Amino acid sequence: MGDYPTKQMQSRLELTDQIFGPATKYEELRDEIYCQIMKQMSSNNNRFSVEQGWQLLWLCCGLFPPSQSLLKHTQRFLESRRRETLAADCLQRLQSSLRMESRKLPPHQAEVDAIQQNSTQIFHKIHFPNDTEEIFEVATNTRIKNLIQNISKKLDLASADGFSIFVKTHDKVLSLNDTDYFFDSLRQITDWSKKAKRIKDGGGPVNVPYLVFFMRKLWFNVIPGRDAEADRIFHFPQELPKYLRGYHVCSKEEMLNIAALLFRIKVSNDKNQLVMIPKMLKELVPADQLKAMSENEWKKSIVSSFNKQAGMTVEEAKAAFLKVVCRWPTFGCAFFEVKQTSEPSFPDIVRIAVSKEGLTIFHPKTKDVLANHPFNRIANWCSGSTYFHMTIGNLVKGSKFLCETSLGYKMDDLITSYVTMYLREQRAVQTRNHRFNM
């Protein structure tokens, strides 16, 4: 609040961390924080100090409520100062925090920045796979599931099911838990990244830039054409890179048809661009198929397919691409190249695909299926920074599949999410049957 000189310069976030960090962990400290802020604002003639105090109290009321014994005093304090700009908002936040679970971590930078600008509204940029972004209002008590619903509604999606919020840092892309508070999740990820970076760089202040993405995570009930907005913003841009990396098995005819569609998406109906096809092949043909024909043969065949699609718009071409790839069993899969150490008959490097059906292991070059493991056959799984392990079949007598990978956390999270979804569906069916039989 600026009433006492400080020995060293500290950022606003460092100060709010010192004030609220311990109280988010230990409930016994919460009343003390409320008392200290209110006491320092009472009979304080320094206007600057009082303004800082209101900002702190505003943050405090959104994090956790005081105990029942202090609640009436806090409410009376706020009600007796209704002329103050933030008093009514603090009171409202206090009532809200009484009804909800307390926050687990101190305020995020965005919350501190907002209230320092005397703004009680907090906005955050959300990025989408089609290289667009939008600003969304996010409150102190906004949970991930609320934000998913808000985004889905604003984008006019047919359903929010299967979508998730992801945070991308310099070295990881992490999916956020639906039930967590948005700002708690951000703090947890950026704090963890800061700690890891500080250890790596040998101490000192660390800045961790991050981006928040909204993407499809679980690919079930995805039928191209059913939700045009979801196809345009998510399904097409999320599926295209997998196709170009050569993860799918497809016929030459399908590849030529898709190459012509992708060319149309790039240039629309501009036939003057046909001469550019040889230079654009990496953006039109799967990486492992580029040498299947010469550049001129590719060009000739793609032009022929392009002419057959005459009159098609860019959006229709995107929809046509999805209608082809959705027929393949690998549509909607998440792919991971890992080093396996448990199956002597498999190559050292295998490609694992996680889909709504379960987990499939492929030969990375021939794309032959080496093994299929439906979710109900996977007894357990675990991951660390360098591995992913799972047990197939019986937990005691089952076979173990061991992998070396830095993306184990992603595989773990995806399998957990699919299994959780199926268990939720199972419980819903059982509940309906129970009601029907009563």
TrEMBL record:
SMART domains: B41 (SM00295), MyTH4 (SM00139). Residues 1-116 form the MyTH4 domain. InterPro entries: Band_41_domain, FERM/acyl-CoA-bd_prot_sf, FERM_2, FERM_central, FERM_domain, IRS_PTB, MyoVII_FERM_C2, MyTH4_dom. GO terms for cellular component: cytoplasm; cytoskeleton. It is found in: Cytoplasm. Pfam families: IRS, MyTH4, RA_2. Keywords: Actin-binding, ATP-binding, Cytoplasm, Motor protein, Nucleotide-binding, Repeat. It comes from the Eukaryota. Gene3D superfamilies: 1.20.80.10, MyTH4 domain, Phosphatidylinositol 3-kinase Catalytic Subunit, Chain A, domain 1, Pleckstrin-homology domain (PH domain)/Phosphotyrosine-binding domain (PTB). Residues 122-426 form the FERM domain. Belongs to the TRAFAC class myosin-kinesin ATPase superfamily. Myosin family. This is Uncharacterized protein. It comes from Zoarces viviparus (Viviparous eelpout).
